[in-house]
Queue: 2 jobs
Job 1
Amino acid sequence: MANERKFSSKVVDGIEQAPARAMLRATGFDKADFSKPQIGVASLWSMVTPCNMHINTLADQAVIGADNAGAKGVLFNTITISDGIANGTIGMKYSLVSREVIADSIETVVGCQGFDGLVTIGGCDKNMPGCVMAMARLDRPSVFVYGGTIRPGKNRTDIVSVFEAVGKHAKGEYDLIDVEQIEETAIPGPGSCGGMYTANTMASAIEALGLSLPGSSAMEAESPEKLEDCRRASAAVKMLLEQDIRPSHILTRKAFENAITVIIALGGSTNAVLHMLALANIVNVPLSLDDFTEIGQRVPVLSDLRPSGKYLMSELIEIGGIQPLMKRLLNKGLLHGDCLTVTGKTLAENLAEVEDYPADQQIIRDFDNPVKATSHLVVLKGNLSPTGAVAKISGKEGLAFTGSARVFHSEEEALAAILDGTVVKGDVIVIRYEGPKGGPGMREMLSPTSAVMGKGLGNDVALITDGRFSGGSHGFVVGHVTPEAMDGGPIAVVENGDTISIDAQSMEIKLHISDEELAQRLSQWQKPEPRYRRGVLAKFAANVTSAAEGALTDVDLDL
């Protein structure tokens, strides 16, 4: 039998640990608790965002679940930020940085307190990968719980509806009252953004990896099912302790292939590319942008979900969530059924009794009628991005675009130019110095992309950036351009009026100047001064890797 108290015993056993026990008695421990395995419950509760405002209730249920399973649940908190609130402002520079801070903070508490197992409960874009990155680093029996999706707003609106209303106002289609009415009703309560944006994408990917209980990714935030999910998660950790099943046993190369397959089938966010690369790096699983290309050639987009599609996550939940889709993918030979999961069973065993979707549903397409026959996540390379960029091409935007560069050195400059009419049909909007180092923090471009759609330019312009995109972004957009401008990548020397072509079929992004001209421009380029010299943004910029490697600060140190 596994040693269920491998870590907590060092904190509470023996006469010399009497002071520690005294401190813990004050927090609610009694004598019997000291002989139980301790399960930490990392709560991402916060009132800074609706995505996480209910998680205190969920965390309480996880503690109850641990106690009922014969362990001792111990609740602690860490931070979160809100992409939806910060988007379009300098505050968004802290978004990707928060992923690293969250992972660091969970690792710090669990490592210090000697918890034997861990439940993490997250509900927004960066705290979810931050949770699983910490789970991977600690490699103790762990389960991730998704906080759940939000219910639709009035007239099936959501947060992206509000962003796009801003563009429609600039176009003259909406007046201020129209915008205010959408603003007031689009976010009706707790939960993460309601389409297949980054939160729902990552919840689905984490379940496909095997780190969440089956069905955890497809529950509403305010539901009896989500409360039960939290109780069951802690009981699962107790079982994992008994069997000594850890993230390192689950996070295999095959598990990552499963996650990528599900991300593609769902039409998920480009941010998932960044997070999968980062997590794989932590557990030393070889994974690169090229793997997304290879898997994407055989996996179709099957879901008609927002932002590119019609339906909301709550509507997918009503017909069974992602489990029937995963079973379809398994039966088609596109998933590895032998992967271990946090149930202690394989993926195939978890899916054995899952029933298919209702015959009349319209959300998940059949394999002979896909939304797109190959992946919407297209890795582009070329003289403008030698080490790769990530495009989100559903096919509705077309598969190629050639236009004239209109260059901006920040998201704010680009947004102003879109709203005031400077950006016109045929432009390729280039937003640079927004990469992991240059921003720093690799801001999402949801405000500019939503403004483009709201202005009615979605089919007429393209946007490329060394920053990244919200899961809510759609249109002809290319992010994660590497090397980034701050590293002297070719995007740093694009000039207004240059012709740029983007081809999703040949998977090429090209700046139409000669090799000699490009080399001359690069030789004359001078690196800008850092925007920050102290604080968390400066530390992130000094340590972060390329977006092609996951924009990670947790790297092997060659000391």
Job 2
Amino acid sequence: MNDDQPPGGNPWIKSLMVWGGIFLALLLVVSMFGPKTDAAASQMRYSDFRAKVAEGSVSEVQIAPDRITGTLKNNTPFSTIPIAGDSGLTKLLDENGVKYAGRAEEQPNLLLYILVQALPFLLILGVAFFAMRQVQKGGGAGGAMGFGKSKAKLLTEKQGRVTFQDVAGIDEAREELEEIVEFLRDPNRFAKLGGQIPKGALLVGSPGTGKTLLARAIAGEAGVPFFTISGSDFVEMFVGVGASRVRDMFEQAKKNAPCIVFIDEIDAVGRHRGHGLGNSNDEREQTLNQLLVEMDGFEANEGIIIIAATNRPDVLDPALLRPGRFDRQVVVPIPDIEGREKILAVHMKKVPLAPDVNPRTIARGTPGFSGADLANLVNEAALLAARRNKRLVAMQEFEDAKDKVMMGAERRSMVMTDDEKKMTAYHEAGHAIVSVFEPASDPIHKATIIPRGRALGMVMRLPERDSYSYHRDKMHANLSVSMGGRVAEELIFGHDKVSSGASSDIQYATSLARNMVTQWGMSDKLGPLQYEQTQEGYLGYGGSQRTMNSDETNKAIDAEIRALVEGAHARASEVLKGNEDKLHLLAQALLEYETLSGDEIKQLLDAGKIDRPDAPTGPVRPVTTVGSAIPKAGRRFGGAGEAAPQGA
């Protein structure tokens, strides 16, 4: 039997037993009120009975007002229904020597009679009571009469205890919440000095950063009951249901105090009041009002700590965030490189790793990944290793899983002509060569001409550490690298034979140059002024739009943007023309191996060859002639390689 099963046993078995009892009771009623017949006696017509008597075949009979029973001389019992007014029956019986006797009508037992008469009403009451119990059972978990009950679920250690050892990469948020754990363990320590623990903590962060995991870790460390509920569980179409559920939730929490109540996605019920019309909005506002009263009303909720999570704190009602309710806002950020390395170490404990796995390198290559993204990355690597029939998960699986998560699966089934492959190889080689000779550029991690997603190839660069701001020299380096693919096509194939493969590179370069001019004040001509206003949400989502600039200012802005991009184009042309032999060398290597690591690219440019088990004997031969066929416009979706700051 399941350990989580309630003491009453399996509810399905109980229901089956109840309905079985009802069915048997109905059979009993039918049998008691149905016609009374002797199962051992054969039914006989009255005319046949008289004929048997006349023949002398009847031995004896018992005569009742409504039935005649008897026995034939061959000991066969029989029964028949008499005809009223037959006064000659006794004379016929006497003439044929049949013994007969009268039989009085059976009088039922008084208690049995009362029970039989009351049984239908008892059955109706029983069915009604059972139906009400079924409807109300489970509170708000689906019962029609219990929709005012709370849907909060109580989690115990049987469902997997989580502690702070399972939380990594968000040390600041964890340290801020450890005080709540200390209070739950030893409340008197704070009460002696007159201190009061915050009544509520609001966890703010992007999806997947570990807000729910943090809340469960608090409950696991403190060893107290942990109620969890979603903000959307409070809101129904009936006004007042949400408020009733809030009251019921706090009543359950008081019975289990000290405890933690975790409300996920609280913005579903805690939005600003006074916006919008309609009954649904009235219901949400009443629910919020009840929540505010329960958190900080006339009744003190000692020992109940409310923890809520949201990624949209800007839409919450101010009354919900004031001291006395959610006293603290704990920001759970996207982990940095150190945090990503710790998170990977936590998830890699469950995976058999090969000796070449380096979590630091994986952390460098996953900027912007949340904890959930990193967990998915480790899982994808394990699945790849299983499909390849390996016993250990090697670094190659992690690299392939990272590329799959970031850019999609490899499109090896995509058929490309030799000329298209050459175009892609030179495009990516152009990015790589410019990146190598730009001092401020991030080091190359990998270059490939294997199509992934919408790109026919890519050059990935990994920063040595996370960057929270970019310098002017690095921005100019990124602009030059983004133009490297287009310049390589112009240099090798000619001005009239460039492809549409650089569309995403041009888009990135234009966007970066616009930000440099209009928002970051990096134009000497326009000065350190803001010409565009960024419209962003709390977590950085949004766009930008121009302020009310004059026509001359807008013309100057466009001219400066064009000057920056064209300057990067000129710088990339200078680098590639001065290193055309290396461009040919790297392009030929990409055509032969399809994928090269950063170390292999550096070795190739320094020594002219690659030390790889599958490498041919001797150095890589440069290409002196290339095909003239160019891919059709629109075939190279998004470019053969994007030169984004993180090596997209």
